[in-house]
Amino acid sequence: MYGIPSSLLLYSTNDCLHSRKASVNGAIAIKGANGNYLRVTNSGGLEFSSPVVDDDAVFVAQLIGDKLSLIGNNGKYVNMYYLEDVKCEGPGAGLVDGKTYYLSSDPGNAAYHGSLAVKKEEDQSCQFAIENIVKPNVSGTITIRTIDGRYMKVTGTNGLECSSQDLDDNAKFIVKQKGAKVALIGNNGKYVNMYYVHDVKCEGPSGGLDVGVAYHSNGTVCFTISGYQGQNGNTYYLSCDTGNAAYNGSLAVKRAEDSTCRFVIDNVGGLSGHIATNNMQVRCLLYPHWLIVCFRPKISGIIAIKDVHGRYLKVTDSNGLVFQSRNLDNQAKFHVKLQNGRLNLIGIRRSLLSVIKLTHLFFKGTMGNM
């Protein structure tokens, strides 16, 4: 097992090798002469087959003296067998002394199940472009902005649009990991989904579109779409452009990546709200399916609950619940009742009590004063 000499990683443009050194440190992507990026395969092999920089195409370069080691997304080191074949399955790194050979983009010996060939003399297949990669954290609750600052938002018709630079709860999405891909859940509790490999909305009831995340050197990402019927093995891209008007609010899917397919990701935590009781407030994380109270005032007696916009939670005439107005009246008042360690809220309407069943209500810690 051997490390990779830094002389193997050179910068090339228009098939000409330049003497200046690229910044080969930290997270990098390596592009071959065929325009594809080097990626780690499921068998720990290496191949220049990725059209975008996804997680499998990101390597961490560690400088050791005048040489470096490369670590793949599988946590293994790029290693060499018998001075002829290179894979990515080494548990640790070593260094080569003696004669200089060259890593190439050509396939290696088939017996190694996915290796790259090592060449004794440098040729065009040994020349690579290096891109320094910034990987944003695409997890938890995020917002998605276009490069000119417009937020992707869920509309009233369960559509998607990128038209406003104002941040509100409709611009927040929960990321759900789906293997190497992710699914997005909107503020309406629905999954981002796709129609006929052309249009994307946010109305999937229990699942939807699983997208890959590809990274760029400026910190932006694109959401890749692959593996669906009708794509013929090609990779498509979610864009911020408006889709087909017949879908009443969709975003277009593009066959080739352009500037409309690049997005800025911000981690924002949960959707926020407050509970007000006895002139005290507690900040909450409010997701489509659960409520987590992070700080605890004494929640007992009669309380009112309002959101960050000052609107009170009220019982409707049909025994529903809605954040409706800033006026505090009896419909906005709730009796708190503790039973077997659980909190029940009882609404007050015309001096009658109607029990409101709240599911998925959790409190951090035990009940009591702060």
From TrEMBL:
UniProt name for this protein:
Fascin domain-containing protein
Q: Which organism is it from?
A: Serpula lacrymans var. lacrymans (strain S7.3)
